[in-house]
């Protein structure tokens, strides 16, 4: 019971009342570090109440290279979380504006990208193109999914092509990078947004810091691969706190949805 009433901040170790923590959008009130959100909490935080309609629901399972133990892992996560993949997609409204939205959930295999994630991201952009809705994706990923080998890597090209086609039709894509956004996801659709937003303090990068240090034989700064470092170096357009995220997204959508700005064909 006590465990359910309180949460412990992973950064500073402060014990916080769960209710207060939730009211503060799962942000520690002592050190300001951000907790990981599941897709339901993320939706509740950024969309208008009760406007989510899930699309491309997928309940099947593929094991393209017969990776040992993959199905068992899938079944275990599914029974624990209800998730059947690392991304949930759908239609929703943000400040009364329609969007197609995708939310990655790290509870499913570290939010890694395999065939189904690639397909769902692709369909999200295809649906948005047809409906002439903007796209917002919240990324949280450890990268390409090891268990699907080369098929995971192919999703980088596939999703990048879908973003490109959507962009050519005039659609707006806002990418929101959250902790962590790494590997094949950062190297594909995460960094292809027309506008790239990040949450404060998020780990964002391609390869791990230690791997890069060993490769280039140099010591990297301590804040390397954080939202703040990437913002300073021009990779990110804005860092937005959770408490203002919905309104910021709403404003961006509004600016780009005015009739005179519409360039859909
Ligand atoms: Zn803390």
UniProtKB/TrEMBL annotation:
A zinc finger (C4-type) spans 9-31. Its cofactor is Zn(2+). GO terms for biological process: fatty acid biosynthetic process; malonyl-CoA biosynthetic process. It is found in: Cytoplasm. Belongs to the AccD/PCCB family. PANTHER family: ACETYL-COENZYME A CARBOXYLASE CARBOXYL TRANSFERASE SUBUNIT BETA, CHLOROPLASTIC. Pathway: Lipid metabolism; malonyl-CoA biosynthesis; malonyl-CoA from acetyl-CoA: step 1/1. HAMAP family: AcetylCoA_CT_beta (MF_01395). Residues 5-265 form the CoA carboxyltransferase N-terminal domain. It catalyses: N(6)-carboxybiotinyl-L-lysyl-[protein] + acetyl-CoA = N(6)-biotinyl-L-lysyl-[protein] + malonyl-CoA. Binds 1 zinc ion per subunit. Zn(2+) binds at residues 9, 12, 28, 31. Its EC number is 2.1.3.15. PROSITE patterns: COA_CT_NTER. InterPro entries: AcCoA_carboxyl_beta, Acetyl_CoA_COase_Trfase_b_su, ClpP/crotonase-like_dom_sf, COA_CT_N. One of its GO terms (molecular function) is ATP binding. The keyword Lipid metabolism applies. Pfam families: Carboxyl_trans. Keywords: ATP-binding, Cytoplasm, Fatty acid biosynthesis, Fatty acid metabolism, Ligase, Lipid biosynthesis, Lipid metabolism, Metal-binding, Nucleotide-binding, Transferase, Zinc, Zinc-finger. Signal peptide: none annotated. SUPFAM superfamilies: ClpP/crotonase. This is Acetyl-coenzyme A carboxylase carboxyl transferase subunit beta. NCBIfam families: accD. Acetyl-CoA carboxylase is a heterohexamer composed of biotin carboxyl carrier protein (AccB), biotin carboxylase (AccC) and two subunits each of ACCase subunit alpha (AccA) and ACCase subunit beta (AccD). GO terms for cellular component: acetyl-CoA carboxylase complex. Component of the acetyl coenzyme A carboxylase (ACC) complex. Biotin carboxylase (BC) catalyzes the carboxylation of biotin on its carrier protein (BCCP) and then the CO(2) group is transferred by the transcarboxylase to acetyl-CoA to form malonyl-CoA.
